[in-house]
């Protein structure tokens, strides 16, 4: 039995793919960039193609960590 969160997650992934396809079709001038967050223990480490992307990834990592702490405390 699937949980509602799993279904929502799958639908969000498909929506993201559709948005990427639409934006690739409409755009001719493309400037790409990207970022990633790696968690080593409780510490988020941000990697990015430039300073803006790295800062965005770091803020996202911190928010994910805070949500994890809140969720963990509700379970126990």
Domain module count: 2
Helix/strand class: alpha+beta
Uncertain runs are none
Q: Share of helix among residues?
A: 55-70%
Query: What order do the strands of the largest sheet run in, or round the barrel if closed?
Result: 1-2
Largest sheet: 2 strands, antiparallel
Beta-strand percentage? 15-25%
Mean pLDDT: 85
Helical run tally: 2
Number of strands: 2
Straight-line distance between termini: 25 Å
The outline comes out as flat
Radius of gyration: 16 Å
**Helix and strand pattern:** HEEH
Q: What is the quaternary state of this protein?
A: single chain
Characteristic terms for this protein:
single chain; 76 residues; alpha+beta; 2 domains; two-stranded antiparallel sheet; 2 strands; flat
Describe this structure in words.
The protein is α+β, with helices and mostly antiparallel strands. The chain has 2 domains: 1-30; 31-76. The protein is 63% helix and 16% strand. The protein has 2 helices and 2 strands, in the order H-E-E-H. The protein has a two-stranded antiparallel ribbon. It is flat, with a radius of gyration of 16 Å. The mean pLDDT is 85.
Write the layout of secondary structure elements.
Elements: H1 4-26, E1 35-40, E2 43-48, H2 51-75
Task: Provide a compact summary of the structure.
With 76 residues, this protein is of the alpha+beta class.
């Amino acid at each position: 039995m699937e949980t509602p969160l799993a279904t929502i997650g799958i639908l969000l992934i498909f929506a993201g793919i559709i948005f990427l396809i639409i934006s690739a079709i409409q755009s001719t001038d493309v400037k790409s960039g990207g970022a990633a967050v790696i968690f080593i223990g409780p510490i988020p480490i941000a990697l990015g193609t430039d300073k803006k992307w790295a800062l965005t990834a770091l803020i996202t990592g911190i928010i994910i960590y805070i949500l994890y702490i809140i969720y963990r405390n509700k379970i126990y």
